[in-house]
C-alpha cells in the first residue's frame, strides 16, 4: 500500500517518461526535483531503504494491518499491547526471536 507522497512521485516519473519536462512534472505533482532526479538515477524509496531496520517483513506487516482492520470491523479494536503481542507471534511463526519494544 503506497502512501500519497510515493504515488505523486510515481505519477511525476510516469509523466516524465511520457514526455513531460522534469520541471513541469515536479510542479504539477508537487514533488521535489531532487527526489525525482534521485529516483531517475536509481535511488530507492524511503521504505525500501529502511527495510533492514524493520522487525517485520513487508508481507508480515501487511498481514498485521489486515488483522487489525478485521478486529476493528468486528468491534474489537486491539490495544497497543495486543498488536505488539500479535507482531511477536508473527515473528516467531517465521522462526525468528525478537521482542518488540513498547514504541
Key attributes of the depicted protein:
mainly alpha; 2 domains; 61% helix; 103 residues
Which blocks of ≥5 consecutive residues have pLDDT under 50? none
Distance between the termini: 22 Å
Tell me the structural class.
mainly alpha
Q: What percent of residues are in strands?
A: under 5%
String of helices and strands = HHHHHH
Helix content: 55-70%
Q: Overall 3D geometry? A: elongated
By DSSP (H or I, 4+ residues per run), the number of helices equals 6
Q: Using DSSP, what is the number of strands? A: 0
Biggest beta sheet summary: none
**Arithmetic mean of pLDDT:** 88
Please describe what this structure looks like.
By secondary structure, this protein is an all-alpha fold. It has two domains: 4-50, no CATH class; 54-93, no CATH class. 61% of the residues lie in helices and 0% in strands. It has six helices and no strands. The protein has helices at 4-17, 22-28, 33-40, 46-49, 58-73, 80-93. α1 (4-17) packs antiparallel against α2. The longest helix has 16 residues, at 58-73. It is elongated, with a radius of gyration of 19 Å.
Helix-strand blueprint:
Blueprint: H1 4-17, H2 22-28, H3 33-40, H4 46-49, H5 58-73, H6 80-93
Short summary:
The protein has 103 residues and is mainly alpha-helical.
Amino acid at each position: 500500500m503506497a502512501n500519497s507522497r510515493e504515488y505523486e512521485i510515481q505519477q511525476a516519473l510516469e509523466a516524465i517518461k511520457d514526455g513531460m519536462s522534469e520541471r513541469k512534472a515536479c510542479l504539477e505533482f508537487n514533488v521535489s526535483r531532487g527526489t525525482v532526479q534521485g529516483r531517475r538515477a536509481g535511488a530507492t524509496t524511503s521504505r525500501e531503504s529502511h527495510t533492514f531496520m524493520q522487525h517485520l517483513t513487508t508481507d508480515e506487516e501487511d498481514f498485521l494491518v489486515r488483522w487489525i482492520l478485521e478486529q476493528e470491523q468486528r468491534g474489537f479494536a486491539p490495544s497497543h499491547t495486543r498488536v505488539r503481542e500479535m507482531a511477536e507471534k508473527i515473528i516467531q511463526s517465521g522462526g525468528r526471536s525478537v521482542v518488540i519494544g513498547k514504541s
